[in-house]
Amino acid sequence: MNAKSFALAAGVTLGALGFGSAAQAACCVAYDYNDAKQNTNQIISQLSERINAMQLAIIEAMRLGTGQLSGNSKEQIGAQSNMANVNDDRRVVGNIEMARFNAIKGAASGASSCNVMTGARAGSALGASAASLSAALSSDTTAWDLGSNDQMPSSQGRDIAIQKRLSRHCALYSNQDDVRSGLCSSAAGSDMQNASIDVGKSLFYNQAGSESTSLGSQRVEAAKTFLINAIAPNPQGGMLPKEATSASGREKAAQRQASAARLSIASNTVSDILAKRTAMPNSEVQGWAQSLASQISGYNANYSEGVSWHDWMDVRASGWYRNANWGVAMNNSYEQAIKDGVMIQSFQAYLAWETYKLIERQNLMLATMLSIQTESSRNIAPAATTIR
Asked: How high is the pLDDT of residue 282?
């Protein structure tokens, strides 16, 4: 084969090869099933991954959301529980305060409150008046005994003092025996006969049908006369002018003072009893006592002339167990019962103090009696008194 033929053959062959590659390339560009399937699988794979990622994200979000919701619910429940506890505590404190308020209200407005408070003021007023009157009566008795008051008959001597005492008895308190004996010209009214010598008609007088122990003006005068008859019936009388300048006169004066001092113990005791039973006019106290007495079962009293300290004590003490209104109030209200219990204890404390004062008087009397007995054992005779 010559060169020309070889070249031609080579060109044909290369041309044929070139035509075949171009045709094949044109076919692949137009549609390639294998390449499309690969692309589809890749898209599906990527989409699946994204869907899976989204599902995981949703699941995680739901899980986290559920956990957050549970936490929020727990916090809310805890807060509600704390608020409930606080409200319970407030209700408990409120109930306690309300009970305390009701107790104070019940104590301040109970059946016996105003009555007892008014009675306390009454007791203070009556106690002060009784103490003042007792001191005055005791002083008058000492003056009567010593004859130191020129307005008293004892200042003129024992005989005149005794005569005046008997004259007063005849004028106000005489009885039929006094008339028969010739002591008195006429008898007094039956209600006042022997009132100067009978403690039941004078110092410890009680009106018939009444529990009141207050003494009106007429009974007070009878009690004063009884005091003189019982305590100082034979006064020493006054000493003569310049009588105490001598040694015997000074000894007599010393004996008179000792006798008067001892007599004053007895007179002060009786004076205190009389003062505490003397009716003291006071409209507020009289209204209080009459109101309280009317509530006490079977307690009849008339305080028209006044109320004595003794009656004040009696009506107060009787009210705690004989006053039906107070008893009902105490049974229906524990506040009232507690308050009345405290008041009763306070009243008992006051009674204990009054009892102590009585014990003091008793001790003084016993000491004086012992002193008199000791002095008698020394054979010291009292000096004779002067009779003018």
From this structure: 87
What's the length of the chain?
388
Retrieve residue 330's tokens: 């105490």
pLDDT in tens, 256-281: 999 999 999 999 999 999 999 999 99
Q: Which residues contact 368 (CB under 8 A, 6 or more apart)?
A: 262, 265
Average pLDDT, the chain: 80
Half-sphere exposure of 72 (CA within 13 A, CB side): 6
CA–CA dist 290, 307 (Å, integer): 9
| Stated pTM of the model | 0.67
What would the two tokens of residue 343 be?
């008041």
- The amino acid present at 292, given as its one-letter code, is L
State the Cα–Cα distance between residues 235 and 147, nearest whole angstrom. Answer: 7
| Rg, Å, the chain Cα set | 59
What number of CA atoms fall less than 13 Å from residue 328's CA on the CB side? 6
Q: Which two tokens stand for residue 190?
A: 């039956």
Residue among 159, 189, 150 at smallest CA distance from 171: 189
Is residue 28 packed enough to be buried (19+ CB in 10 Å), middle (13-18) or exposed (0-12)? exposed
- 10-20 pLDDT tens trace: 444 444 444 44
SS (H, E, C) the chain: CCHHHHHHHHHHHHHHHHHHHHHHHHHHHHCCHHHHHHHHHHHHHHHHHHHHHHHHHHHHHHHHHHHHHHHHHHHHHHHHHHHHHHHHHHHHHHHHHHHHHHHHHHHHCCCCHHHHHHHHHHHHHHHHHHHHHHHHHHHHHHHHHHCCCCCCHHHHCHHHHHHHHHHHHHHHCCCHHHHHHCCCCCCCCCCCCCCCCCHHHCCCCCCCCCCCCCECHHHHHHHHHHHHHHHCCCCCCCCCCCHHHCHHHHHHHHHHHHHHHHHHHHHHHHHHHHHHHECECCHHHHHHHHHHHHHECCCCCCCCCCECHHHHHHHHHHHHHHEHHHHHHHHHCHHHHHHHHHHHHHHHHHHHHHHHHHHHHHHHHHHHHHHHHHHHHCCCCCCCCCCC
Q: Are 200 and 193 in contact (CB under 8 A)?
A: no
- Token pair listed for 114: 């105003």
Dihedral pair phi/psi, residue 278, rounded to 5°: -80, 130
